Amino acid sequence: MGSFYVMSLAPAPSMAASAAEVAAPHGKSSAGPTISIHEFMFSPTSLTVTAGTTVHWKNLDPEPHTIRAVDATFKSDALDQDDSFNFTFDKPGTYRYVCSIHPQMVGTIVVKSAAH
Amino acid sequence: MSRPTVDRGRRDALKCLAYGGAGTLFTLSAGVLTPVDLAVAAGKDPAKATGTPLFVQISDSHIGFDKPANPDVNGTLTKTIALVNALPQQPAMIIHTGDITHLSKPAEFDTAASLMSQLKVTELHTTPGEHDVADADVKEYFSRFGKPSKNKGYYSFDSKGVHFVSLINVLNFKPNGLGALGTEQIEWLEKDLKGRSASTPIVVFTHMPLWTVYAPWGWGTGDADQAMGYLKRFGSVTVINGHIHQIVQKEEGNITFHTARSTAYPQPKPGEGSGPGPLKVPPEQLPTMLGARTLTLKHHPNSISVTDTSLA
Asked: Would you list the domain boundaries of chain B?
């Protein structure tokens, strides 16, 4: 995984563009960090973003995977190869998620408050 | 391909037997459930298939799967159905042990239903696999198959003196965890079994194994021990599942565990490769992988012949 393009998509003016590292976003979807799902791994496994960020997941495996928050905050349908899922994190907190088809696959999103 | 016939005590022999094929017919003989490979049961030597046909287990059809490991999962399920329909004596029911679909899509369920409607046997019992409950709202499976369990996923019924228990272990996975039954279901099981005679043959069917085949890939059920505790006192308990697309069998006291092959594609042996998933084999080899092993039981004398058969 290379660098991320991080920016706010939520209507939070103070949060305009806090891009630590900038890269051209892949694909057609809106900008935001992408977690690739490859060889039964979420990569990166742990990601820290600011509130309001939309996180993308893209499944590169020929095997389907899902994104299921342990606390059910967000959940995807089954993602076949090359399918994507987006979720915008508005509330700060630590979100653990699993693939409901392969629960050995675990990831974490840490959402930090936008305002300092 | 044929293996030498092995003569030994039946009980002892069961311990080390694998059986399978595209589907497995369970026959009831003197209160003992006997798995007989479909290809044998439907095939050339009907004398080998003794007893009363009780049910046929098919598993892991993965309708919607279109990758190179098997570009025609509809075709291989259809072949399996033809084998079942060719049985000289039709069983009372079919049990599908999950992963009916690959992605829980409505169209996949519809195709599966359409294919399975070709079965001569109309009584169909199911338990979902994790691929059947992979839609975000977990509604597609239950809207079609949720009725017997009132959408809980677990239920029981009786047929021909056998008590059948359908369990669900593909919801509420914990991170790094195995499959799970959950407290509510385990408590229900305890009540369901309470008061039943220990001589009642029990069949438990579920999707993931109720014993740990390989923990790093989640091939097991974390809280199965408690459930097994309630089953121990019964004289004959048969636990069947799918999920791992290969044949593994184990015996613990009066409980035998049987995992079934898939009608769709093989999976690697535990720990081989980066993870569980479709095992790509040369196309000409695939039908062989889908049908592999056959077991024939003859009660007199207690001899067992194991034959490798295939869908090819």
From this structure: 6-308
Rounded to two decimals, the pTM is 0.81
Residue (of B109, B267, B208, B177) closest to A68 by Cα position = B177
**Are the CB atoms for A106 and B176 separated by under 8 Å?**
yes
Identify the structural domains of chain A with CATH numbers, from first to last.
Answer: 13-112 (2.60.40.420)
ipTM of this complex: 0.75
Instruction: Answer whether B309 touches A (CB < 8 Å).
Output: no
Out of B102, B130, B274, name the one closest to residue A100 (CB).
Answer: B130
Q: In what order do the strands lie in the sheet with B202-205?
A: B155-159, B162-166, B202-205, B237-241, B255-259, B249-252
**Nearest residue of chain A to residue B99 (CA atoms):** A101
Q: What is the DSSP string of B104-164?
A: --HHHHHHHHHHHTT-S---EEE---GGGG-STT--HHHHHH-GGGTTSS-EEEEETTEEE
The owner of tokens 């000289």 is B88
DSSP β-bridge partners for residue A79: A65
- Distance from C-alpha of B41 to C-alpha of B176, rounded to nearest angstrom: 41
Q: Which of B180, B188, B166, B182 is nearest to B130 (CA)?
A: B180
Closest CA to A52 of A25, A22, A16: A16
Out of A103-107, B89-93, B292-296, the most confident range is A103-107
Contacts of B175 in chain A (CB under 8 A): 70, 96, 98, 103, 106
Q: Evaluate whether the domain defined by B6-308 bears CATH number 3.60.21.10.
A: yes
